[in-house]
Amino acid sequence: MKVFTSTLCTTMHTPQYEFLSGAETHYYESPERREVILKYLQEHPDSFEITERVEDFGLDPISKVHKKDFLQYLEHAYEEWIEEGGHPNGVLPGTIPHYKVARLGKQKASNVLAKSGEYCFDMSAVITKDTFKAAWNAAQVTLTATKDLIRVAEQYEQSIADGATSRENPPGLYALVRPPGHHAQTDVCGGYCFLNNVAIATQWLMDQPNLKGKDGGPKKIAILDIDFHHGNGTQEIFYTTSNPLYTSLHSNEDYPYFTGSDLEKGEGEGLGFNINIPLPHSTTDDEYVETLEKLIKDHVLPYDADYIIVSLGVDTYKDDPIAGFLVTSDAYPRIGNAIRKIGLPTLFVQEGGYCIEKLGLNVGGILQGFLAKA
Ligand SMILES: [Zn+2]
């Protein structure tokens, strides 16, 4: 499996601390996360081919998903923060416009202290000096992998036509990036996320003029979000459209708390194309894998997509320090294999997972499970 990554994902975004349950703690979405996953991949050269080749797709695909004023804010927030006397650890909102208080549109944010609340929904997305560059880089790495997805998908179709392979052996690619993306909305950051890598990749695929789906329209994409937390950002970005299909398995009693209900089904043209499956903290290996298989059977396969994009989080792991079902490392190869059985070209994009000791093994388990023939 080809792996796309960049050293800048480690070096450019390094907040020193965050606040969890009222306490100051180290920043769980740490640079070390990428390092331990990379180490696992490097130790398995028969399965993974790592490249740091990153193409620059520019601002255009990012601005198709995120609003211009939000992008300008992210780019300049730290500089303005420091000018106004903010702490050098990074931009952290002190006042967030609560929906019972704010009258947005009437009272626009005038300085960075106000903007930090307007453009962020929690206290975990700390903006440091080079955070925008890191998030930009993560988006470009994901786009580079997405461009390659088109190539391997075409090869796959050709091999099937030639009788050289069957639909049971789909190609897979992996974008090892940070910061993650699935909590980032159109114009709000939060949950360690600034730019929504999966949404940017999905929109870019649909915008390729020469890439036609089975009905002559854009290619159809099914997003499978298997992070422990609900991907409120991806849901919001695609809530009113029937392409992509957004599906998510996540905790029903955890962050981000106010989204992820199974009653959130999409709106307008998007009604029925947003599938949330909330699960309790007590979820075990068998329960998780069986629910995923049912989700695939009931929703992903009938959608008849051309590509699968996976928001790959392993904070479902039982010992994850900020999350966790009762899921063990044994479940991850089974999860990967269930995704393989969909039979479609698949791009995995790294989201959460904070148990440093098992992070490489658990991410590697999903990818190896995808590669394993039944
Ligand atoms: Zn998560």
Automatic annotation (TrEMBL):
<dbReference type="InterPro" id="IPR023696">
    <property type="entry name" value="Ureohydrolase_dom_sf"/>
</dbReference>
<comment type="similarity">
    <text>Belongs to the histone deacetylase family.</text>
</comment>
<dbReference type="InterPro" id="IPR023801">
    <property type="entry name" value="His_deacetylse_dom"/>
</dbReference>
<dbReference type="Pfam" id="PF00850">
    <property type="entry name" value="Hist_deacetyl"/>
</dbReference>
<keyword id="KW-0479">Metal-binding</keyword>
<feature type="domain" description="Histone deacetylase">
    <location>
        <begin position="28"/>
        <end position="363"/>
    </location>
</feature>
<dbReference type="GO" id="GO:0016787">
    <property type="term" value="F:hydrolase activity"/>
</dbReference>
<dbReference type="InterPro" id="IPR000286">
    <property type="entry name" value="HDACs"/>
</dbReference>
<dbReference type="GO" id="GO:0046872">
    <property type="term" value="F:metal ion binding"/>
</dbReference>
<protein>
    <recommendedName>
        <fullName>Histone deacetylase domain-containing protein</fullName>
    </recommendedName>
</protein>
<dbReference type="GO" id="GO:0004407">
    <property type="term" value="F:histone deacetylase activity"/>
</dbReference>
<keyword id="KW-0378">Hydrolase</keyword>
<dbReference type="GO" id="GO:0040029">
    <property type="term" value="P:epigenetic regulation of gene expression"/>
</dbReference>
<keyword id="KW-0862">Zinc</keyword>
<dbReference type="InterPro" id="IPR037138">
    <property type="entry name" value="His_deacetylse_dom_sf"/>
</dbReference>
